Automatic annotation (TrEMBL):
This is Transport permease protein. It is found in: Cell membrane; Membrane. It comes from Asanoa ishikariensis. The lineage of its organism: Bacteria, Bacillati, Actinomycetota, Actinomycetes, Micromonosporales. The chain crosses the membrane at residues 34-54, 66-88, 108-136, 148-169, 181-200, 246-267. GO terms for molecular function: ABC-type transporter activity. It comes from the Bacteria. It holds the Pfam family ABC2_membrane. It is a multi-pass membrane protein. Belongs to the ABC-2 integral membrane protein family. One of its GO terms (biological process) is response to antibiotic.
Length: 273
């Protein structure tokens, strides 16, 4: 009697997404430059800032306690927006996206892999930054569950907005070679005007108004509510932490980013048609 050979069951959506996520993490880890720049850059910057500005910013708070918020936010911007907006055009240029589109794999799996990679790298990067700052530069970590919860939702909304905007912005660069030149200035300008390297309220008012349009400023502000005493809320432009507004604007950027991804993402280069 002939045995009946059963076809293995196709993996479910969760298994497909996790498999693609593992592949993306492995590819990221193999790129030494990406690992060093993306994961080590915020920690290097906090070492530089903490070494230069070793005094207090006021109210018994040292500079590290203030600038850690900007370093966390810029780290999430780097892994979510900057890395994807540079990485995806390179894959498009090499024909990777065109080949993926021609396979039976659902298109959403590709994006799920990118999202999983960004989340894992973002968590590890933030953990390294907090560990370095707490061990060597007297950073006081949040002391209450409420502050940790605020940290969680601000970081999650922020990295979600940055990831979606990074995927959408990946269609701006025409080639892989031009992507860093297109993306890096945008990220740097946002960092300078959003209170990453300077006390936000010391910036010119017009610069503060421009920064308030974009998510990075609100990520920094939300994180300041986690790491700074409540007395510092009065020094914000609105006189309070405005956490409701932080959530609203970051959430709005998530929606805008999703719409832009759906309407502008390209699987092929213009020369491929």
């Amino acid at each position: 009697m002939t045995a009946v050979t059963q076809t293995p069951a196709a993996p479910g959506p969760l298994a497909l997404g996790l498999r693609q996520g593992r592949l993306e993490v492995k590819q990221f880890a193999r790129s030494r430059e990406a690992v060093v720049f993306t994961m080590a850059f915020p920690a290097i910057m906090i070492v530089i800032f903490a070494s230069i500005f070793s005094g207090e910013i006021g109210g018994g708070v040292n500079f590290t306690q203030y600038f850690i918020t900007g370093m966390i936010a810029t780290g999430l911007l780097s892994v979510g927006f900057q890395s994807l907006a540079i990485q995806i055009p390179a894959e498009r240029d090499r024909g990777v996206l065109k080949r993926l589109r021609g396979t039976p794999m659902p298109k959403w799996v590709y994006f799920a892999g990118k999202i999983i990679m960004v989340l894992i790298v973002g968590v590890v990067e933030t953990a390294i930054l907090l560990a370095v700052s707490a061990l060597f530069f007297d950073l006081d970590l949040p002391s209450t569950a409420a502050r940790w919860l605020t940290f969680l939702w601000v970081a999650l909304l922020g990295i979600s907005a940055c990831t979606l905007l990074g995927i959408a912005f990946s269609s701006v660069a025409r080639t892989a070679r031009s992507a860093p030149a297109v993306v890096t200035p945008v990220a740097l300008i946002l960092q300078f005007i959003s209170g990453v390297f300077f006390v936000f309220t010391s910036l010119p008012s017009w610069m503060q108004h421009v920064a308030a349009i974009f998510p990075l400023k609100w990520m920094c502000q939300g994180l300041r509510s986690v790491f700074l005493p409540d007395s510092f809320a009065s020094q914000e432009p609105g006189g309070t932490w405005e956490l409701g507004k932080v959530a609203l604007i970051l959430g709005a950027w998530c929606v805008i980013g999703l719409i832009l991804c759906i309407t502008t993402f390209r699987w092929t280069t213009k020369r491929d048609g």
